[in-house]
From TrEMBL:
Signal sequence region: none
Active site per the UniProt annotation: 362 (for fru-6p isomerization activity)
Enzyme class: transferase
Coverage span on the entire protein: 249 to 615 of 615
Function: Catalyzes the first step in hexosamine metabolism, converting fructose-6P into glucosamine-6P using glutamine as a nitrogen source.
Subcellular localization: Cytoplasm
Recorded superkingdom: Bacteria
Sequence ranges assigned to domain SIS in this UniProt record: 41-180, 212-357
Complex and partners: Homodimer.
Molecular functions per Gene Ontology: glutamine-fructose-6-phosphate transaminase (isomerizing) activity
The protein's name: Glutamine--fructose-6-phosphate aminotransferase [isomerizing]
Catalytic activity line of the entry: D-fructose 6-phosphate + L-glutamine = D-glucosamine 6-phosphate + L-glutamate
Amino acid sequence: EKGGWSSFMAKEVAEQPEAVANTIRGRIQGDQVVIPELDGLDELFLGINRIIITACGTAAYSALVGKYAIEQWARIPVDVELAHEFRYRDPVIGDDTLVVSISQSGETMDTLMAVKYASERGARTLSICNTQGATIPRESDAVVYTHAGPEVAVASTKAFSAQITALLLLGLHMGRVRGSVADASADVAELAALPEKIAKVLESEQEHVTQLAGWMADTRSVLFLGRHVGFPIALEGALKLKEISYIHAEGFAAGELKHGPIALIEPGQPVFVLVPSPRHSAVVHSKVVSNIQEIRARGARVIVVAEEGDAAVLPFADEVIRIPLAGAMFEPLLAVVPLQIFAMALATAKGLDVDQPRNLAKSVTVE
Ligand code: F6R
């Protein structure tokens, strides 16, 4: 039931603090992350030397955030591969490989076939899934459920946040088992603080971003730039816009600009730029600020998503969307929220059905 909401998507965007809190619940013990479902897999986590995360669409973008987090914390090389690509080539996998699949529905045929393929080739499989008892978790050796609750709108929002949360938990869990995270207390505190920070973004930016989308209802193309874990969020922001507002949108790694995409910038082109906190890396931050200057000099209309207090972006931004301070791996969960609101508000401004976009199904059960 939609309750008082204008759409399921609006309801599900608003439910993100709860979705993230429910996914974390029961998985923190003291100042450590312990996922009870993975009890007994310590030997596996110690024995593997490679992880492949496989998924489609939004779930594959959560996987890209997971790559950064798992490599950082568990010190295992991680590749992310679209399920429909992984399955139709001859990947180098074996019993030293853990194949992690991510699926909200647990029924996506491409992802299911990738999991079966991995098992046949001797890899161990773990699924991250939002639907209890679905086919993909049943076909996997282990499962970590996201507890986002049922997602009805075709465009994935709260499931995406819960997927990233589960990947962060998995990274910290494996990091503890492998001894590569000695002290997780700061990260555990970041996790615990997430729901409230997401709620804060929803509260403080909903009106601003909705207004912005209203002004931009005639826009024909929007670009998104990010670096580090902001890169997958740029991809996700673009996908949301394509899906529900039928606008041409593309996400880029900001560092790629000068290798091609900057040629797209002409006066008036709207560009969202996800600015990482200068507290995480002064260098990465300043690189993004110079990217903003480069596109601004060519007439782009720059909409910046930056942490509270980051004044370096002010001289070059047409609009500034603020998110609370958070650790590097946790920022994506805050930065994605205004992009979801933007896509939803733009679709609404165009008079489109945000829950049932054309040509799309909630669960893609054909290959
Ligand atoms: C985007 C979206 C799709 C799904 C993809 C995978 O908003 O909903 O890109 O993320 O079809 O679906 P699941 O997670 O059910 O495997």
